[in-house]
Amino acid sequence: MKRIAFFVSPHGFGxxxxxxAVMQAVSDGKATVEFDIFTTVPSWFFQDSMTxxxxxxxLLTDVGLAQNxxxxxxxxxxxxxxxxxxxxxxxxxxxxxxxxxxxDSCLIVSDISPMGIRVAREAGIPSVLIENFTWDWxxxxxxxxxxxxxxxxxxxxxxxxxxDYHIQTEPVCSPGDPDLKTSPVSRKxxxxxxxxxxxxxxxxxxxxxxxxTGGIRQSYEFxxxxxxxPDIRFVLPGAGPNLEYRDNYLILPHRSDYYHxxxxxxxxxxxxxxxxxxxxxxxxxxxxxxxxxxxNFRESKPLAAFIAGEMTGFAITESDFSSxxxxxxxxxxLCMKRLKRMAVNGxxxxxxxxxxxFLQHHA
Length: 363
Known about the structure:
The strands form two sheets. A seven-stranded parallel beta sheet has the order 3-2-1-4-5-6-7, with helices on both faces. It is of the alpha/beta class. It has helices at 14-28, 43-49, 75-85, 90-103, 114-123, 135-139, 149-161, 193-199, 260-266, 276-285, 300-310, 318-323, 330-334, 346-359, and strands at residues 2-8, 33-39, 54-58, 105-111, 127-131, 165-169, 180-182, 207-212, 232-237, 244-246, 249-252, 269-273, 289-292, 313-315. The protein has two domains: 2-185 and 345-359, Glycogen Phosphorylase B (Rossmann fold); 193-334, Rossmann fold (3-Layer(aba) Sandwich), CATH 3.40.50.
């Protein structure tokens, strides 16, 4: 059995979702592979997302952006985290590389962990970078507010460039000359939409709207306003500690029995934060998207351009989302056409690339 190590950024759940989708696609292709996952994303996330065999190694592989809320970053704390994390201590990297050698990994895949690339070089094995942005590109917008980001940007840029193979996934923020460019990568649906709707006790005649901020817990001030639309059922993952039915809406805990891609696929529309994995799941499902962009976050503009060109929906401001003003636009969202998606899932494109380059003679 071949072993592949994945170093995954713990910034939100989007990178973990993309990595899990790729690992599952590699495994589905009948490759005899076990994965070693290095991250601080909870192990349950991968247990819920994959049937592929893996071993979990808790390791801080990236600091990303410190978040105050689902929509706002804490830049001073981000800088403190970067100062503590970078540059990498050589002896620490050597210890991790020795562990990778003991595991007999044939490859390190990084989503978008710079540590994985550095460890691969130390271990003398190939590295693959998967990204729709890199941190040097994200941090660049913050130099004007704090020039101390500059040294970290230069260090990270050199690391990301040094990856042996480079894969970019749509929506790409900073197009380059990668070894592979793919469609959006998302985890695949497990349970048919009609079964999910029955499990959620949603009548056949009712419309279902999913309200989500991705992998971040969120409390909402607008819940009482939802009952003004009694013919619509709203489902809100991460909005409370327990599963709870209230009026015409359902609160789900942060980790529930309902798989997020299944909820997206079962919905008639989705409202929430435009993060990578949520966008990709909505893209695959083809449902309309009332999307909220993060202010002061450089990824937002390319995501908005992709939604406008490839998806259906409209933008909702942060203030309108928080206050519930968006609720009056729900009917307009539900009138939009659901798209039939013919494009291949980017996870399969990446899995093919990995098999051809690293597993062809070992499957």
